[in-house]
Amino acid sequence: MYELLQDAAQTLAQVGEAASSVPHAARDALASAAGAAMHTSGVMDFIARSDWVGKSLFAILLIMSLITWYLIFVKLFMGMRNRRHSAHFLEAFWADAPTQQMEVAIRPEEAAEPFARLAARAVRARDFLAARDVPAQGASESDAAMLTRAMRQSIEEDTARLEGGLTALASIGSTAPFVGLLGTVWGVYHALVGIGLTNDVTISGIAGPVGEALIMTGLGLAVAIPAVLAYNAFVRRNRVYLARLDAFAHDLFTLLVTGRPFNRARPQGADAAPGGKER
Q1: Residues 248 and 274: beta-carbon distance below 8 Å
Q2: Are residues 56 and 32 in the same domain?
């Protein structure tokens, strides 16, 4: 009887040692699994393991990003070129006004920037009106109206040129976060389905796939933020530039109608407004 009790005590001791070693083994297994997940997880790994919906959403975000940066670089280059040409043209134009030499200053720059195109359109309209055989009565008002319409048409055409691409930037900035969010929802759904099939209800088993799905939200924000910032910057730049163009149109109208500029000072630099005041 004593021997049986001694054997039972030894058996219980061995079971207790085995039970105490299980948590350590589980922790080691979890640590190794987490380390493997850290080494294998990433943006490209997540995209590679996604289905066709996830890959399509990633491709859409990539295309949006390429369009955004293309428009940013193109419009930055065009803006710097317009400012440089405008400063050169305004200095040459007002130096020769109101003499006939101002038309010489227009021709080399006519197709280069909005101020020269506006001046060329206005001068052509004035020459056309002067060549008509119209009775003097009522001619001045109609001529002024036609000259105004010609100048306004030139300003509207250049406004459309300056605003080109802004609609695309606004659309990308407003839709890219939702495209990324859709990718996150789709990734979380598939992650939860996979967890349910494998019965791996652990912190690492849940946090890894769900965390990878959140990558799509980050990509959407990374695409949208530059688009929104660029849109706001270009809208403000166009507003200032068009205000200068409109002020130049008023001065040019006065010059063509009266034959002399009205209270006009020669511009000192590229940032001088056409009215002689700094903005």
Answers
A1: yes
A2: no
- List per-residue pLDDT tens for the chain, 279 residues long: 545 445 545 554 554 554 454 444 444 444 444 444 444 456 677 667 667 887 888 899 999 999 999 999 999 998 898 888 888 888 877 776 665 556 655 665 566 688 888 888 888 888 777 776 555 444 566 778 888 888 898 899 889 989 989 999 999 999 999 999 998 888 888 777 777 777 766 666 666 667 777 888 889 999 999 999 999 999 999 999 999 999 989 888 888 877 766 655 444 444 444 444 443
Q: In sequence order, what are the residues at sequence separation of 6 or more whose Cβ sits closer than 8 angstroms to the Cβ of residue 186?
A: 53, 54, 57, 213, 216
Q: Could you give the number of structural domains in the chain? A: 2
Ramachandran region, residue 219 (left: φ > 0; alpha: ψ -120 to 50; beta: rest): alpha
274 falls within a domain: no
Same domain, residue pair 10 and 138: no
- Does residue 266 fall inside a structural domain? no
User: Is the same domain home to 18 and 115?
Assistant: no
